[in-house]
Amino acid sequence: MAAYILRRLLLVIPTLFGIMVINFVVVQFAPGGPVEQMIAEIRGQRGPGAPLERVTGSGQETAAPAPTVAAADSGESRYRGARGLDPEIIAEIERMFGFDRPPHERFARMMVSYLTFDFGESFFQNRTVIGLLLDKMPVSISLGLWTTLLVYLISIPLGIRKAVRDGSRFDLWTSAVVLVGYAIPGFLFAILLVVLFAGGSFLQIFPLRGLTSPGWDQLSLGAKIADYFWHLCLPITALVIGGFAGLTMLTKNSFLDEINKQYVITARAKGASENRVLYGHVFRNAMLLIIAGFPSAFIGILFTGALLVEIIFSLDGLGLLGFEAAIRRDYPVMFGTLYLFTLLGLIMQIVGDLMYTVVDPRIDFEARR
Q1: 98-149 pLDDT tens trace
Q2: Per residue in 94-116, is it b (16+ CB within 10 Å) or e — as a string?
Q3: Residue 62: enclosing H or E segment and its boundaries?
Q4: What local confidence, expressed as pLDDT, does residue 205 receive?
Q5: Phi-psi region of 117 (alpha: psi -120 to 50; beta: other; left: phi over 0)
Q6: Which of 85, 172, 304, 339 has its CA 20 to 30 A from that of 112?
Q7: Cα separation, 126 vs 326, whole angstroms
């Protein structure tokens, strides 16, 4: 098993490197980079003859010579909207963002820094990427952890029940509920919950902003826990409703497939009770795929599944951070989060493989040819 884990860990390196290379190349061709963003801000905030003052990545304001049209008219700039700005100002902006170096050198320096988890500073927020990630992590972990746990706690018993009572009235009406969960995405449920219970048009029972209330630090332990779940109730409900359908049907189909196999028929013929057959024989084989997928499901909800829900409920998490970084072309945040999320995703795939051996010790990856 140790040799298999080592091989998988070694495969993480080229996989992660390839993903970073592909995304870096794609970003180089995307219009509206950070230099263009800065140029747009300068042209929008400064007049043609006003001096330039901008906050650099280190947080210090630097003054540059005033842009002169004559200086810029002598040559065309490769940046859209740069006409009318002094070329020295454009060069200073490029140095500020590190774009005075060729792309391959920038990529090499970035990857060397990432080996030590040094993701640099945000272009526009004057903070380190690690600091931003640590600030947003509690929101995303809260949403991802509780949503994943509730989805599994609801879907697995419901799927087993549907499989055991396949074709019954219970199976039919629960299938209707599952179809609704399939058809309506989680963010639409979130909007409905806001309208009904968060002061939209009817009741105002739950809060609509943040993870905790003002003055949370002064509350008692019990009050802190109650306030925390009070804020999470609606967003987690929206995510669970939008995510339980697929796992429920996967559980049901896995159990139906195992129930109809020969070893189950043999166990019943030997006089084994229904509970013994279901939970002693069928459960281990049917739950193999479902339980092993838990790490990947958690990572999916943690980093990608809650973006629109975070926006609707004003929760400042990792999904919103990545979205805003992509819109603003904040490359350190974009590539830092991509590197970290990809690395965690690859590691969670290995953890998922290990979960197979936990659920069924008969599985031996080293025995494969």
Answers
A1: 777 888 888 888 888 888 888 888 888 888 899 998 888 888 888 888 888 8
A2: bebbbbeeeeeebbeebbeebee
A3: strand 61-64
A4: 84
A5: left
A6: 304
A7: 17
